[in-house]
């Protein structure tokens, strides 16, 4: 079998692979070169430097596995790989300490102007008064994303006597408390923190999580750090805030486009930058290279992988019966997680009717994956979803009842946090998945595309203005369902729309008299 390594990989990983396979190390390939070359290979091992695009996947007729020696898989077209049956694995733990240490190094370098002072002295200047710094002791650090790296950063900053504020929709109050972190909102972090660091994946929710509005709220002495992914902090807004003197500095390791030679803040004096070095330590590189090499060896020899991103660990015969329900459960999980706008500590999956007699473990895993994916994106997969829920103190409960009201089988997923809960129920009719209730109210929705779900008072002159607002913004409504509540009572409305709806338009809808809430659900 043949393995292509297309980014620089630690020798320990290369030699492990060479013990088993014919290994070709070719770095710096263009997309065209990779498309041409990949045809012959059974495995591809990469870091962040290789873009595994749809074209590359389409050309990869022998490829069985893509191994990412690191965390982020945003440079891999996962859907294309999944469609082609190519396993994608990563090495989620090997570089977390290095990334956390780099974050702390960036914070300290920024606090004490070390890169600028170093450059000045090497230019034979003695400019002590230009490099007055600040202490971090007693200061407040805001950590956005309290996963593996965020948690390690918080721990290290506490060692330097910093107070930690955190935001992570996926972390419960209890867990935050055990980490010594005060859980709050992004805006509160923007207002109160002296240093702010981001440690999330780049998703629809995290893109521009620090934007012009947040820079406007920050204190004049605020400093921001991005050692996660370019785009989590809006680069234009950051440049504007620095130029206007709204904040005191920034330390950036990752960029929307790398190398970032056209980046709008790269030349600003109080910005320090590194060329995506978070994982660049000897230790981390050995860890991730060995981890990925072991995964590739196992998979190419017919075994399984530990850190799969896209392949369910379900036996083929079980899959054949459960496949439509696995898809349904994942979709329902995603829908309900998008509807609940607080953290949750319990996921309840209820099976009714014929499905309750089956071994539903795989369906439950799919439901949990669907729920968690809203916050964790590609970090969650069929294999790790239950463990991720457990590690975040989220209880997963299954219940079964042999009777089902209208459909042969129905699945409900309910998320809880204290007295707040939301639920979505679905069924499979023919081969088509349907949402049949939202929060217990009957609807009949094909769960696909964009949907606005709102609660409103069941009385005249509420639905019309919503439709007018969408029409005025050129958003076409392709379907509408309204729950059945008594006149004057609270009811659900679900509007299928043909395009994504911005927060501004949703705010317009939320402002309509009689509307209680409105959420965009993307499926
Ligand atoms: N600079 C580097 O070289 C380097 C090295 C390693 C990792 N990384 C990047 O660091 C990031 C974090 O990695 P990790 O291993 O800690 O991942 P992780 O999956 O362990 O943690 C990510 C956390 O982000 C949280 N999150 C998701 N959506 C959120 C949202 N909307 N708001 C706030 N929090 C949200 C999740 O709940 C999770 O706890 C990734 O983007 C990864 O690619 C960069
Ligand atoms: O996601 C990651 O693991 C980091 O961004 C590291 O990327 P690298 O392996 O290309 O250094």
From TrEMBL:
Give the UniProt keywords, A-Z.
Answer: Amino-acid biosynthesis, NAD, Oxidoreductase, Serine biosynthesis
Q: Which transformation does this protein catalyse, written as a reaction?
A: (2R)-3-phosphoglycerate + NAD(+) = 3-phosphooxypyruvate + NADH + H(+)
The reply to whether NAD figures as a keyword in the UniProt entry is: yes
- Is the keyword NAD in the record? yes
The segment(s) forming the D-isomer specific 2-hydroxyacid dehydrogenase NAD-binding domain are 104-278
The GO annotation for biological process reads: L-serine biosynthetic process
Q: Name one Pfam family in it.
A: PGDH_inter
Sequence ranges assigned to domain D-3-phosphoglycerate dehydrogenase ASB in this UniProt record? 322-438
Task: List the pathway annotation.
Answer: Amino-acid biosynthesis; L-serine biosynthesis; L-serine from 3-phospho-D-glycerate: step 1/3
Would you indicate the residue range of the signal peptide?
Answer: none
The main enzyme category here is oxidoreductase
Q: Which residues cross the membrane?
A: none
Q: Where is the D-isomer specific 2-hydroxyacid dehydrogenase catalytic domain?
A: 3-310
Which Enzyme Commission numbers does its entry carry?
A: 1.1.1.95
Q: Which InterPro entries match?
A: ACT-like_dom_sf, ASB_dom_sf, D-2-hydroxyacid_DH, D-isomer_2_OHA_DH_cat_dom, D-isomer_DH_CS, D-isomer_DH_CS1, D-isomer_DH_NAD-bd, NAD(P)-bd_dom_sf
Q: Which GO molecular function annotations are given, in alphabetical order?
A: NAD binding; phosphoglycerate dehydrogenase activity
Entry similarity comment:
Belongs to the D-isomer specific 2-hydroxyacid dehydrogenase family.
> Can you name this protein?
D-3-phosphoglycerate dehydrogenase
The species is Methanococcoides methylutens MM1
